[in-house]
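User: My advisor asked me to double-check a structure prediction for Pyruvate carboxylase before group meeting. I don't want to rely on an old file, so could you generate it fresh from this sequence?
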Amino acid sequence: MFLHLGGSSGKMGMLLIRRVGLFCRSAHLSPQSLEYRPIKKVMVANRGEIAIRVFRACTELGIRTVAVYSEQDTGQMHRQKADEAYLIGRGLSPVAAYLHIPDIIKVAKENSVDAIHPGYGFLSERADFAQACADAGVRFIGPSPEVVRKMGDKVEARALAIKAGVPVVPGTDAPISSLQEAEDFAKTYDFPIIFKAAYGGGGRGMRVVRDYEELEENYQRAYSEALAAFGNGALFVEKFIEKPRHIEVQILGDKYGNVIHLYERDCSIQRRHQKVVEIAPAAQLDPHLRERLTSDSVNLAKQVGYENAGTVEFLVDKHGKHYFIEVNSLTNYTMTFSKCRSLPELGLEQDKIQINGCAIQCRVTTEDPSRGFQPDTGRIEVFRSGEGMGIRLDSASAFQGAIISPHYDSLLVKVIASGKDLPTAATKMHRALTEFRVRGVKTNIPFLQNVLSNSQFLYATVDTQFIDENQKLFNLKPTQNRAQKLLHYLGHVMVNGPVTPIPVKAKSSSVDPVVPSVSLGEPPMGFREVLLKEGPEGFARAIRQHQGLLLMDTTFRDAHQSLLATRVRTHDLKKIAPFVSHNFNNLFSLENWGGATFDVAMRFLWECPWKRLQELRALIPNVPFQMLLRGANAVGYTNYPDNAVFKFCEVAKENGMDIFRVFDSLNYIPNMLLGMEAAGTAGGVVEAAISYTGDVSDPMRQKYSLEYYLKLANELVKAGTHILAIKDMAGLLKPEASRLLIGALRDRFPDVPIHVHTHDTAGAGVAAMLACAHAGADIVDVAVDSMAGMTSQPSMGAIVACTKGTKLDTGVSLDRVFDYSEYWEVARGLYAPFDCTATMKSGNSDVYENEIPGGQYTNLHFQAHSMGLGNKFKEVKKAYAEANKLLGDLIKVTPSSKIVGDLAQFMVQNSLSRAEVEERADELSFPLSVVEFLQGHIGIPHGGFPEPFRSKVLKSLPRIEGRPGASLPPMDFEALESDLRMAHGDEITPEDVMSAAMYPKVFQEFKEFTSKFGPVDCLNTRLFLDGPKIADEFQVELERGKTLHIKALALGDLNKSGQREVFFELNGQLRSVLVKDTAAMKEMHFHPKALKDVRGQVGAPMPGKVVEVKVKPGQKVEKGQPLCVLSAMKMETVVNSPISGIISKVHVNADSSLEGDDLILEITE
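Assistant: Sure, here is a fresh prediction for Pyruvate carboxylase from the sequence you gave:
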């Protein structure tokens, strides 16, 4: 709000008011001391932004400034802004130091201070302080001690208001001295009532009570807060006015009895009775009410002979009736007024003061609105303010590196915006708040932005219940804070090493792959256009009618699963994706999703599998995408309710998936049919895949004979599969077996496209796939040359070269294959710690004997070497073959292959032969996966379960009959989404819900990781795995048009908290992060933290000090019962019991200092 003062501008007039008060008195020194005496040195007996504001005004006037500070405020800015600064309250508590009058007077006398400014809070309303200044011959910048006594004592102020004819709220005539007096008042006036500190404000020592059950607890909390904040716990009681407006009138008085007002401001937007947003003038205020408020304020000031600046506070009820609350005889907003000159002499006359425009003040605090405005503490890692025309900032500890302590007010900065009207000022304020960047501590900025955008705030009136009644204000848009989180991640890796487990000691290559050139414009048409135009059935016909052999490229999924432990990141897939789109448009499909890649993306790469699918779809719009669906197990390793599988396929299709390769680890038809139906209902292409094992070319092996596969195929074709696939997961298809099997299938199903998948472990992959193609297969799986061979798929280049110029010609350019392969050859070096060649130097034809699937073969080899059993891998493979026979000769693919592997490891670890296992089956403790398989958890194997082995293992354990998932109740996705929103905020997508449905714990850990470390998928792979070296400079693209320029500068020494400070340069500015050294912290003692997933562990909701522990070990408590009281930033918080139970252990005492989430106590249900 601007005020016109006669012919001068409002701003100049207010500047005049601010300055003249510093030259002249305030408190009475003696009757003879009224003559003018210039002030040369001013002390501010306060801290923070108010101290700095006074210092700035003094500096403008050429007055020397003196700061005082507590031991806890050694690093605060107010002591640096003053010309001199002195410690007070040595050995006292943080608040008590600023309440210690003797120390303050001593410093003033010893350093020739002429006047003391009290600021607000602390001693500003203490008459004894004003008198102490007068007694010491030091001027008190404020009203006389008598006026401070009258108006600082809220009870006496009430009496004066009544005498002046100003309406007051019913309340006690004097401070109460017992709980009984409060009870008597409540009986007389009924609830609700409110306790208020008699000697202070700002929401401290204030509690609303609505019934007798709350009375005692709130009395104790109000008394304790008032005592801590003001050094006096005296309280008075008032009838609580429901939903009033809180209006304040600014007044100025001189010693000649002249009093004027500077109109009003609306302070109704409050939390815990403390102002959050203030508006001047009050919006939608009736002119007659404004007249009554201002005249009553002036009359009351004249009644008491008020001098200097002050604020008269009122409540206005819904009927427009106003009630006096108090007078703040402090100088929050203007400096004190001169006693040497009269108001008219200074040109300050009421009829010359007019309202012109509007101003809004927001208190930016270090509080978390989503947790009841709990104060947050810590180190400000980043601070950038919002400025510009119409914006004023008043702050103290708002700078990078500042430590926000729990001992004082949570105010960070006051932001004042001015404009011609409320909407204009609100727009400026919103813009300024948007420019702020505060990292390291939580702030209320998102909440303030919601307030400023609220239509009631902008165009109607608000009352003190505005925040409580507008819960949409708490729909906070989370700040991304991506840059700082990534610095935390990089620092963490630099201090503690990789976050993803590294199987071998190898470093990523220092060479980055170069992406081949890509032509501009849209990529050429591919088979996806056929699918989108003609649907799955038309697509299948087009594939069958196609001349030549079609290829599916597995480089984006199964190839790196087999060779690189599924660790290839989206970052490297995206780089080559445009090249694939433009040069391999005639591929049948790209296999790039599903199977193990889904959970590994979250579990080890800390990236969202759905985001991978979305981003690749945008970059490759023309080639169909294919995924691996584990039938009724979707992409998991367990059974899911049927509706979860259907929903998963639906969401996958919506995100760009085209072809669903549906298989079951036991070829169990009921499980496969469910997956096929789910994929088909979603609108996808259904590719039913028969998992291959055995050898159809060997007449001695009859369990999995040619007839077995033909019978399975017949059922799948009858069920409506669009494409029929053979999934040879171990690479067991020999060329002769390929001709027999594919030839028989082609003869039986002439119109159905046939797709064959194999692994090249034995080295016969290319020959087998060529045999399949000649026998009638339409599609075979390949991987680009540098990602092919061994346990991966056959070489793309070899197949392309061998069919070139024949009727099977793939139409794929060998030159483009070479370019594609070169990219992956270099990229593969980035994943050296995961490359199978670190331990496995070749494939092995013994796979025909042990039948280990490709990906599992690699994993088992890694595991054997990591356990020092590299020279015994032959025994591991032999045990695998024996375990397979024990379980009845299974189809082996995830998850059945894992079951066989678990049993094999069990046998090796316990030095058990197959015969010994069979003989002792009823006494051995088998791996859980083996037991659950025998119970029927993943279905029924071909030929049934092995007996008597099964019965000996299970004994009396229950058995599942039929399809395992059929008996599961439907999954409640709405409830799941609601739970996820409660845990992670409102930014939950349908894709998140499906991730949580498939992998609840993995998703939870993934969300916690990304919340802490940000979008690590933006980092290049070398940085992700190894972090930067000192002096490394690099760029990180967060999104199109937003690139971070980062340089790693230094790594600090270990501090007493077990942390190291890591220094970076970010976009040319110095940044640093504190990183816990996990190795060093193992040898240091810290207070235990509460585990969030343990219901009985109660942690501190915020940093603070324990005021009172209300329970003891062995005590029975009920849910909601108070357990202890914490104090932080002069606010007390009661910690209630989350459950009913018995207190088993208490970890704190009164006066214990806690950090957030520190364990307070444990409850046993």
